[in-house]
From TrEMBL:
Keywords in alphabetical order: Calcium, Cell adhesion, Glycoprotein, Membrane, Repeat, Transmembrane, Transmembrane helix
Main location group: membrane
Subcellular localization, as worded in the UniProt entry: Membrane
SMART domains from the UniProt entry: CA
Entry GO CC: plasma membrane
Protein name: Cadherin domain-containing protein
UniProt domain Cadherin: residue ranges: 7-117, 118-212, 213-320
Lineage: Eukaryota, Metazoa, Spiralia, Lophotrochozoa, Mollusca
Calcium as UniProt keyword: yes
Topology of this chain in the membrane: Single-pass membrane protein
Pfam families: Cadherin (PF00028), Cadherin_2 (PF08266)
GO molecular function: calcium ion binding
Length: 379
C-alpha cells in the first residue's frame, strides 16, 4: 500500500500491478472509520462483502468477511485493464453491515494501479523486408513499422516512427541485399528491449548498358553461300536484371542499305545470316554495325562491328565492252590509214577477285596491236 485517503466513505488505495495473488490492498474496516458511528462493541460485529455492481472491477477483489481487509482476487495486469492510459483506476464497492443489526453503509474504493516495467517493446513482426531502388538519393528515408511497449511512460507507444536513411550510394550490381538488426529499448530503470531483423533488397535500375563480348568480329564467307545461312553470331551481356538486363540485337540504321539488305540478324540469339545471293559482292568486305539494346523503360545500347569478307569461289570468264571509233557495229579503217591509228576502244570486266580477277589481253592479228591505257582498258 502506497497511500490511503478516506473521506465521505470513499477510499483510495495504490498498488503495483502483477503482485502475487492474493495481495493486500487495504484495510477497509479501519480506514472507513466504521467504528466511530457504532462504537467498539457493534464494530466487532460488522461484516464486509463486495457489491457486484455493473461497471466496476468487483471480480478482481475480495474482502475479509470479518476483517474488512481488501485483497486482490485475480491477476492485476495494468496493460490489459487500462490500455495506454496514464492513470489506471479500478472501482469496487464494499458493503459494511451489522450482523443481525440495522447498521449498513457502502464504501466506494478506488484502487490506483501503478505500472511496472514488465513488457518488452515489440515490433509487429520478428522480421520484415524493405525494397529500395539502387541509385536512390543519399538522405532518402523509409519508414519502418515501429515497436510498441504496452507499459506507460516508456516512449514506445507506436507514435514514433523510426526511419531508415540512405547514407551512401547503393549499387545493386555490387551488393543487392543487406540485413540489419534494429533494437528498440524502453525508458525503464532496468530497460527492456525488442529486436527487428530488417532485410533490405536493392531493386534494379537500368544503369548498365549491354557489353559485347568483342568490339569487332571478322568473318569470311564464300560468294556461293546459300541465302539464310548463318555466318557468325554476336553476344552481349547486361549486368542489370529483369527487362533491364534482357538484350535484343539489331543492325544500326546508319549504315549502307546494301549491307543491311545482304544480311539479317536474329534479335534473340544474335545470329547473323545471309539474306541473298552474294555473287555480286564477292571480293568485298562489308562492314556491319550491330547494336545490342536492353528492354528497360529507357533502353541502353552498345555497338560492335562485324566485318564480312565475301571470298571469290567461282572463276567467271571476263567480258569485253567494245566501242568502235566510227560508232558503227564494225570498225571502218581506210586503206591508207597510218600505223597507230585507233580503230576501237574496249574495257575488260571480270567480276572475280584476287588472281581470278587479273586479266591479260592479246591480239592474234598481225595487222593490229593492243595498247593498254589503264588497268583493264585498251585501244
Amino acid at each position: 500500500m502506497i497511500s490511503v485517503t478516506s473521506q465521505n466513505k470513499e477510499l483510495s488505495y495504490t498498488i503495483f500491478e502483477e503482485r502475487p495473488v492474493p495481495d493486500t490492498v487495504g484495510n477497509v474496516a479501519r480506514d472507513s472509520n466504521a467504528s466511530i458511528p457504532v462504537g467498539t462493541d457493534v464494530f466487532n460485529t460488522l461484516r464486509y462483502r463486495i457489491l457486484l455492481q455493473p461497471d466496476t472491477n468487483s471480480k478482481l477483489f475480495s474482502v475479509g468477511n470479518t476483517t474488512g481487509i481488501l485483497l486482490t482476487a485475480a491477476r492485476i495486469d495494468r496493460e490489459s485493464l487500462c490500455h495506454f492510459s496514464e492513470k489506471c483506476r479500478l472501482l469496487v464497492y464494499v458493503a459494511i453491515q451489522q450482523n443481525n443489526g440495522p447498521f449498513f453503509i457502502t464504501v466506494k474504493v478506488n484502487v490506483n494501479v501503478r505500472d511496472i516495467n514488465d513488457n518488452d517493446p515489440q515490433f509487429p513482426q520478428a522480421s520484415m523486408t524493405v525494397p529500395i531502388r539502387e541509385n536512390s538519393a543519399i538522405g532518402v528515408t523509409i519508414d519502418i513499422t515501429p515497436a510498441v511497449d504496452l507499459d506507460v511512460s516508456r516512449d514506445l507507444d507506436g507514435s514514433l516512427v523510426p526511419n531508415l536513411i540512405v547514407n551512401s550510394q547503393l549499387d545493386r550490381e555490387t551488393k543487392d541485399f543487406y540485413s540489419l538488426v534494429i533494437q528498440a529499448v524502453d525508458g525503464g530503470v532496468q530497460p527492456r528491449s525488442g529486436v527487428l531483423t530488417l532485410n533490405i533488397t536493392v531493386e534494379d535500375d537500368n544503369d548498365n548498358p549491354p557489353v559485347f563480348e568483342h568490339s569487332q568480329y571478322n568473318v569470311s564467307v564464300n560468294e556461293t553461300l546459300a541465302p539464310r545461312s548463318v555466318i557468325t553470331s554476336v553476344l552481349a551481356s547486361d549486368r542489370d536484371i529483369g527487362f533491364n538486363g534482357e538484350v535484343r540485337y539489331r543492325f544500326s540504321s546508319r549504315q549502307p542499305e546494301e549491307n543491311a539488305n545482304a544480311f539479317g540478324i536474329d534479335e534473340s540469339t544474335g545470329e547473323i545470316m545471309s539474306m541473298q545471293d552474294l555473287t555480286n559482292l564477292q571480293g568485298r568486305t562489308l562492314r556491319l554495325i550491330v547494336e545490342a539494346v536492353d528492354r528497360g523503360a529507357k533502353p541502353l545500347k552498345a555497338q560492335a562491328v562485324v566485318n564480312v569478307y565475301v571470298a571469290d569461289a567461282v572463276n567467271n570468264p571476263p567480258s569485253i565492252r567494245l566501242t568502235t571509233i566510227s560508232g558503227a557495229n564494225i570498225s571502218l579503217v581506210k586503206e591508207n590509214a597510218k600505223p597507230g591509228y585507233v580503230v576501237a576502244h574496249f574495257i575488260v570486266v571480270d567480276v572475280d577477285s584476287g588472281t581470278n580477277g587479273i586479266v591479260s589481253c592479246s591480239s592474234s592479228r598481225g595487222n593490229f596491236a593492243l595498247q593498254k591505257l589503264v588497268e583493264n582498258e585498251y585501244k
